[in-house]
Amino acid sequence: MRARVAARIVGREDELDLVLAAVAAGRDLVLEGPPGTSKTTILKAITAEWGIPLLFVEGNADLTPAKIVGHHNPARVLREDYSADNFVPGPLVEAMERGGFLYIEEFNRAPEDTLNTLLTAIADRTIAVPRVGTVTAAPTFRVIASMNPYDNVGTTRLSTSVHDRLCRLAIGYQDEPAERDIVALRAGGAEGELRTALVADGVAVTRATRAHPDVRQGSSVRGAIDTVLVALQLAELRGIAGPGDDRYAPTVHDAMVVALSGRIHLDEAAETTPERVLREIWEDRFVLTPAAAAPG
Ligand SMILES: Nc1ncnc2c1ncn2[C@@H]1O[C@H](COP(=O)(O)OP(=O)(O)O)[C@@H](O)[C@H]1O
Ligand SMILES: [Mg+2]
């Protein structure tokens, strides 16, 4: 079973084992890591293999308990009065009844009363829904929460009772070879010298956004995927066949601005712009160390 799940994921063997062990042990879990670190990919692979649903909810200030539990259809309530029959289940009730994983991204942003509703479901495996009755969780029901460690809505605001009920796994960025494999897999395109060079360059410049001193949070692997996809299109429009072309490096720069400028979050104190940061990263790779840009 583990091998079949692993076949859907590039790398991440240790993280997969730990998540699998926790959910197989019947535990609920918080995954703590920045965006693009395979959290959703791992959960999709496990739930697909188990044949159970994966329900997504985004944690934010508007996520009321009613939104995750469900509501009565107002038009039908007017006609028929409240009944279990005109109840529209929310993702929590649906996950409990169908034995799915409820995946709450950025759950530290959810309001206190919503967290309390979740805690009840986690601790009791049942919840009481007014005018419907008691909903009991199927055995494979799990709550998986995620948190971005760079989020400035502090994870410290979560009460000890929340932390005390969840296992925790910290997930960092992939290493460079794994990130290249992911981008090569997701960024399609005809294989060849151009694509190989773009994958290596797209991954390198994206990773550099995470290490730049003026950046609080750099781009995820999604930025690298988009850099490659945009650059491939630009190369075709401009008739660039490979990395040996003089216009190759400027084309990577153009793609970086489109794919990455909206994805890097500068330090509040930094007196620069995303475009300037990207220019520096590009110069580091293509101008100051021209060897890196050489064909092959
Ligand atoms: N280990 C991986 N194997 C294959 N694709 C991956 C992997 N990690 C990330 N991806 C790809 O990168 C993107 C972001 O990954 P995702 O799992 O959604 O990250 P997260 O949920 O941590 O934000 C998706 O397009 C996904 O297909
Ligand atoms: Mg995700």
Automatic annotation (TrEMBL):
GO molecular function: ATP binding; ATP hydrolysis activity
Protein origin, superkingdom: Bacteria
Pfam families per UniProt: AAA_5
Domain ATPase dynein-related AAA: 28-165
The protein's name: MoxR-like ATPase
Organism of derivation: Geodermatophilus aquaeductus
